[in-house]
Specification:
The chain has helices at 3-15, 46-49, 97-111, 134-142, 155-158, 239-247, 259-269, 277-298, 307-325, 333-346, 351-355, 357-384, 390-400, 404-413, 420-429, 434-438, 451-470, 499-514, 526-531, and strands at 20-21, 59-67, 83-91, 119-124, 150-153, 159-161, 174-184, 206-219, 225-238, 477-482, 487-492, 519-525, 545-552, 557-562, 577-584, 589-596. With 597 residues, the protein is α+β, with helices and mostly antiparallel strands. Strands 1, 2, 3, 4, 5, 6, 7, 8 and 9 form a nine-stranded mixed β-sheet that branches. A four-stranded antiparallel β-sheet has the order 10-11-16-15, covered by helices on one side. The structure holds serine.
Length: 597
Amino acid sequence: MTTNDIRQKFLDFYKARGHKEIPSAPLVPENDPTTLFTSSGMQPLIPYLLGQSHPSGKRLVDSQKSFRAQDIDEVGDNRHTTFFEMLGNWSLGDYFKEDQLPWIFEFLTIELGLSKERLFVSVFEGTNDVPRDEESAHIWKSLGVSEDHIFYYGVKKNWWSRSGEPDKMPAGELGGPDSEVFFDFGTPHDPAFGEKCHPNCDCGRFMEIANSVFMQYKKLENGTLEELKQKNVDFGGGLERIAAAVNDNPDVFIIDLFTPLITVLENVSGQSYTKTPEITRTMRVIADHMRAAVMMMADGVVASNKAQGYILRRLIRRSLLYGRTLGLTKDLSYIRELVHPVVSLYTEAYPDVGEHAKIIEEGLVEESARFAKTLDKGLLELSKIPVLDGKIAFTVYETYGFPWELTEELARTKGQHVDREQFEEEFKKHKDLSRTAAAGMFKGGLADQSEQTTKLHTAHHLFLAAVQKLVDPTIKQRGSNITAERLRIDFNYSRKLTDEELRKIEVLVNEKIQENLSVDRIEIPRDEAEKIGAQMEFGHKYPDVVSVYFIGSKEDYFSLEFCGGPHVSFTGALGNFTIIKEESAGAGIRRVYGTLT
Ligand code: SER
């Protein structure tokens, strides 16, 4: 069964049950300036979920092209992709759980032939306001799902809205409890992720393949949830993940939508996909990014320095940089060779791809050639400079668009170290960079200096101090990324943090916010800062004189960190801190996302 067959079977299955097929909305949302890309099937249907009547009726089915820019750094493992297709079916106030769950189960087990034994399901455990979903559990049991394959989870896992849990939903946002289906690949549990394995465990044994959202609530201005006039079903299933389950292999990059791209990369580089984990990762990144770039261009996105165009440019540049690590430096014809399989795989389902094939190919080659020239010029300039420092690294970035990572790697081959902090300082001084910075070009540093970002940066320090005090004092920061919307922090720790630990951290951070502690910066020699125990990022190199930030009094501080700032002057300015998500970011590394409201 090919992945194209799976898509078609899904559409036919629901059409046979009274659904009208609707075309995928474009990747760039129409009439929605608040978001760059369509990232889920329900997004274009919001007015209809709220009650407006849909011209195709109350039962809809589609396969929606989706893109999640926030996942760009996650690509490289066996399951994350930026572009994906979401199979979706909707009941706009028509049928509900009693039809949806049996249908999706029938589709997965009968149409696709997945074994019942390999499927696990989750249902909502309930809150004070929303009842525990015994009804779904009962339906699953009646379908033959055994009790030990049914798991209850709370709002973090079994509630769906575009902004996450009920507390995080802004007024007017839609949401509801959901019931997910997971495929068990049967790989042994890795205890680093917790004592016991379960469907939402991050050890890699399970993969979520289907999500039925019972979209029946709207958030009101007063913070409460109101039942919608109509009870909706919003189903979403990642096509690539479903195909991986059918393939009985958790690597989505070996499904037939990716193998032709991987084969091109193997041929042009002369290296096998499985040769080393690094090569596997590199080929996944290129295959993902080039597919996404083609699909974006088919929807009219043109590489530029703004908005969607900037994301496209970033995908292409990242592909080329990763390509260089496979030895693909001079001959860019492989770019053309990667476009062809994407066009032939997608033209039937999305005719735009075939119609624009020539423009896409030429556009991609042109943009790649432009960047390759920039790289060559930059490399030549760099080779003339005897000692590279952060200032020069910034100048070549500014002049040639030369990425930091590459400059650093050149410097390393000369036995030099380029000071990242100096580079970042230069970056901050430069007034006109919010455009690229806001799009998150720079990992590991502040993206911009807006008020909200500054607040999140201070919250980041509070979080690190809280996790050290409450969970383990030996925890060290291993990476960070802050945008105007949220903070992200990576740190070393061998297991998933429990919900209880996360809650306690939230409480402690909020207490420190309420205490309105002062935030003070001093400049001292690095040795002295180390002596007084200032936190530094693991593996990060610092200059001889560093800037450190105290939160609280210098005699009795809550947090002390090496940092260039900027920060708020008093923690009281931060508002309310919430943790959005906790996940693995590689072996022994945890990643937490948090936000301020
Ligand atoms: N809205 C849900 C999701 O995106 C189901 O379609 O997962």
